[in-house]
Amino acid sequence: MAEPSQAPTAQDTPETTAPPERYGYCHWHQASARGIRLIDAIEQGSGPGITYYACPPCINLHRLVPLADRP
Ligand SMILES: [Zn+2]
What we know:
This protein is mostly beta strands. The protein has a domain at 23-69. Helix content is 10%, strand content 27%. The chain has one helix spanning 56-62, and strands at residues 23-26, 31-34, 37-42, 50-54. The strands form 2 sheets. Strands 1-2 form a two-stranded antiparallel ribbon. A two-stranded antiparallel ribbon has the order 3-4. A hairpin with a 7-residue loop joins strand 3 and strand 4 (50-54). The termini are far apart. Zinc ion binds next to helix 1. The site of zinc ion has 8 residues, from helix 1.
């Protein structure tokens, strides 16, 4: 494992109550986005299973409910 050459930079400080944003692939608009949430996880009998992430705009657009926000 190579060490990251870039030091983390402090950008504008987010609110302390906000959860850390996760950067990754949004399956709904099929591109990388910031602040994605895990929407669904499909377990498979064989293999690692499938996980679906969506960014906040897609969550609003498609009225998705993140797994963590479900009862
Ligand atoms: Zn999206």
